[in-house]
Amino acid sequence: MAPLPTLLILLCAVRGALLYHPIWKPMWPASKVPVVLPQLTEDLDAPEFTAEAKLEVTSPCGPECHKRASVPSYEELKELLSYETLYFNGSLTQTNVGIYGLNMAELARTQGNKGRSRAKRQIYGHDSRFSIFGKDFLLNYPFSTSVKVSTGCTGTLVADRHVLTAAHCIHDGKSYVKGAKKLKVGFLKPRQKEESSNQTRSHLPEKMKFQWIRVKRTHVPKGWIKGNANDIGMDYDYALLELKKPHKRRYMKIGVSPTAKQLPAGRIHFSGYDNDRRGNLVYRFCEVREETYDLLYQQCDAQPGASGSGVYVRMWKREHRRWERRIIGIFSGHQWVERDGMPQDFNVAVRITPLKYAQICYWIKGNYADCRDG
Ligand SMILES: *[C@@H]1O[C@H](CO)[C@@H](O)[C@H](O)[C@H]1NC(C)=O
Ligand SMILES: *[C@@H]1O[C@H](CO)[C@@H](O)[C@H](O)[C@H]1NC(C)=O
Q: How many A from CA of 198 to the centre of ligand 2?
């Protein structure tokens, strides 16, 4: 018979294994979230809706250029986070915001110096995306949180009537896009029996179709509208849509983006409606290659149509004592970046920084008290 200490160690080991207690568990870092509060809202002239929806944004400013960019001042941040709200009846307002509880010294420290990028980089290999088939997957979490935005992008359900997407799906930096006037959000639903009753088709994947809900209002940050997709403009490529009625599906909460090092296996995940696979929801994951304070650079395979997808990770939430997936970024677009004389291909996602979290959370909840825990 084994001596008592050995037995105890064995028992502990077994118990540990049963509880699945890895030595390192990726945890959601505790974030101090500042407050972004609307201060003054004024009416603007009704917009023209003249721009063509461009499903791909590009910026000549790569990671090194972003790292060199100066840290915005407090006043500049207030400008960037002020926002326009477009209503379904065509009226438009502009809201100025105040920012409270922001530690500028810390911001300068974290934003100014991100260190050297990781040396190893790969070009895209074979297509590593997965089309998601079957209603068991499409209608269940987390894939069920991916919705189609009527201008051609993807969005993610982040509350019971809110959808997060990319700003460029709504506004090209100068003007609202044509389709933004009657914006809708599409939910994949199985087709009714009678529509797909043709027996010869029964071997094909289950037919799904979009059911559309109108958008009541849309918020776009001024940081995007002013920037027009150059330099800093991509940093603010996000928009929040409020549906006319609740969607009744489970949604994925937003969270403050951890650093790339804190991500499980350094990876992010997202699903979207890539144009080259019409009607399919396409899922992928990949490693983050580079990061700046506002952007994640990665080489996930993606096609136009996937932009606006919520980039998520699954980590342990200490306060809730459970694993949680949260949206930490919005897939923006595709970039060729000149590096050491060689063009490098990157896909870019906008990170949800503490300030952006505060802003988007306020848009969702309408108060800041529920937005202090990122
Ligand atoms: C449009 O809707 C908003 C919000 O419901 C309202 O404040 C505004 O007056 C409306 N504008 C027009 C032109 O009807
Ligand atoms: C059912 O499939 C057959 C063979 O593909 C086709 O000829 C027929 O038109 C289809 N019927 C309907 C109602 O779609």
A: 6
User: Which residue puts its alpha carbon closest to atom 1 of ligand 2?
Assistant: 198
14 assigned to some structural domain: no
Q: Residue 350 in 3-state DSSP?
A: strand
| Active-site annotation holder among 307, 309, 332, 334 | 307
Rounded CA gap, 46 and 169, in Å?
A: 19
Within a domain: 300: yes
pLDDT digits (tens, 9 = 90+) for 3-57: 555 555 555 554 444 455 556 789 999 888 999 999 999 999 999 999 888 877 7
Global confidence as pTM? 0.84
DSSP H helices in the chain: 4-18, 63-68, 74-81, 104-112, 135-138, 222-227, 354-365
Distance of alpha carbon 197 from the chain centroid: 38
Domain membership of residue 273 as a residue range: 25-371
> Strands 35-44 and 184-190, how do they pair?
unpaired
Instruction: State the total domains in the chain.
Output: 1
Structure confidence by residue, pLDDT tens digits, 273-295: 998 888 789 999 999 988 889 99
In a domain, 53, yes or no: yes
Tell whether 163 is covered by a domain: yes
